[in-house]
Design brief:
Number of helices: 17
Distance between the termini: 80 Å
Radius of gyration: 24 Å
Helix content: 40-55%
Oligomer: single chain
Strand content: 5-15%
Number of domains: 2
Order of helices and strands: HEHHEHEHHEEEEHHHHHEHEEHHHHH
């Protein structure tokens, strides 16, 4: 009897040890190398203090690399990551395919801005929780505008932006009138060029899915983009994406920068931005066709269906996207650094509304309409992307073509012809065009 008792006790200890061991998990988190995500990594002591059995392994990648590696891993069921940083393009498509786990345990999901929650859902289920949401707007140097004898409009047109860029350009002193994305990628240069094209009356496809790069609206948009970048943009612009342009603007080398509203906190940070006190914000420009060049996006956290650590991953996502996390950032680094564009409560907070870009961020997000992204009818949803699985490949290739034009390797007409041919072939092979 004593021997049996000893044996059972040993088994119980082994079993308890197994449970304890199972509780110690390491989450591998794939994320993008922007300032908000890097800041989150510095804040995670708050999470691990209340979840001591969960360790965090970060894989931080440049935007194009992140998309490529995460897409490859999830589509091949590689199981390399437990938490993915993805956006409004991937989430509903991957949710529909069953590649993501529906989220549970999210802090006050009803508080998430409706447009953001809708873009991260499929069939009424939230498949990714927004870490921050964004549109795009124009950041500009108020001191350089004053020096040029100009005043920025609250509702600028492209003509006004180009006039300001021309007058602010001072190459002798290293100042470019404007910085815009040129690095190839569907989420890099095509995020900007897609919305610029929208504002010029262009569209990716007509109602029958025929590509529209051979239409005058696209020619007007691309010709304008290439000219202003040649006249007033920085050297080597075909290699510049969000991160590179942020560094240029912070170092005083750009008079204006049209890009993500999420950049707001970084351009007014006196520790990082040379001209922080002189930065102003205005809504993205238009060309008189009823659409502005602003997008709608959220970087969000999701759990791939192949993860073996779903419960721990859900806990981490719940923490990172909670109101508590926002309050933690506000207490440590100020309200300007709280992840923007996700929660209604944030924009009802009088302290947050004192932040210079807060109201303009919300106005820009509200002005974006993914259901009606262009002036003319289209068969797709999405503003800076087309919400079909084939878009990632098409958008990346078209981005490479337009980046080559910016580098001076081909003309605008050649770029548009190549984009038209490639996209037509791709859509025909995919069965959209009969």
């Amino acid at each position: 009897m004593k021997l049996r008792h000893t044996f059972l006790t040993a088994c119980a200890v082994f079993a308890l040890g197994g449970i304890a061991q199972a509780a110690d998990v390491t989450l591998t988190i794939a994320t993008v190398n922007n300032g908000d995500m890097i800041r989150m990594q510095k804040m995670t002591d708050d999470f691990t203090a209340t979840n001591p059995g969960i360790k965090l392994n970060w894989v931080t990648l440049e935007e194009n690399d992140l998309r490529q590696k995460v897409t490859k891993d999830i589509s091949t069921k590689g199981g390399q990551y437990d938490v993915l940083t993805i956006g409004m393009y991937e989430t509903p498509i991957w949710g529909k395919k069953g590649w993501l786990v529906p989220l549970a345990g999210i802090d006050d999901p009803a508080d998430i801005l409706p447009a953001v929650a809708g873009g991260l859902s499929y069939d009424g289920k939230l498949y990714a929780a927004p870490f921050y949401g964004e549109s795009s707007f124009v950041m500009y140097r108020k001191d350089l505008m004053a020096k040029a004898g100009l005043k920025m409009s609250d509702t600028p047109t492209w003509d006004e932006i180009i006039t300001a860029a021309d007058k602010m350009t001072d190459r002798a002193n290293g100042v470019n009138g404007i910085c815009l994305r040129g690095k190839a990628g569907w989420g890099e240069n095509m995020a900007f060029l897609g919305t610029m094209a929208n504002s010029f009356g262009a569209r990716w496809f007509d109602e029958n899915w025929h590509p529209q790069f051979d239409q005058p609206e696209w020619k007007a948009a691309i010709t304008t983009y290439l000219k202003v970048m040649k006249d007033d943009g920085p050297a080597g612009a075909s290699g510049n994406g969000f991160s590179e342009n942020l560094a240029l603007f912070q170092s005083g080398k750009c008079g204006m920068w049209a890009d993500a509203t999420a950049a707001g906190s970084f351009v007014i940070d006196p520790k990082a931005s040379k001209n922080a006190a002189d930065v102003g914000f205005t809504i993205a420009p238009d060309k008189g066709f009823g659409k502005r060049a602003n997008w709608l996006w959220a970087w969000a956290l999701a759990v791939p269906a192949g993860s073996q650590k779903v419960e721990a991953a859900q806990k981490f996502i719940g923490w990172a996207t909670s109101k508590h996390y926002g309050e933690l950032v506000a207490a440590k680094e100020g309200w300007a650094n709280v992840p923007p564009g996700t929660r209604t409560s944030l924009y009802n907070n009088p302290e947050y509304l004192k932040v210079p870009f807060a109201a303009m961020t919300l106005a820009s997000m509200n002005a974006a309409d993914p259901m009606h992204p262009t002036a003319k009818p289209v068969p797709y949803t999405g503003i800076q992307f087309v919400a079909i699985p084939e878009f990632a490949g098409i958008g990346t290739k078209v981005g490479e073509i337009f980046s080559s034009a910016l580098a001076g390797q081909i003309t605008a007409d050649e770029a548009l012809a190549q984009a038209q041919t490639y996209t037509t072939d791709a859509m025909t092979k995919a069965g959209y065009i009969k």
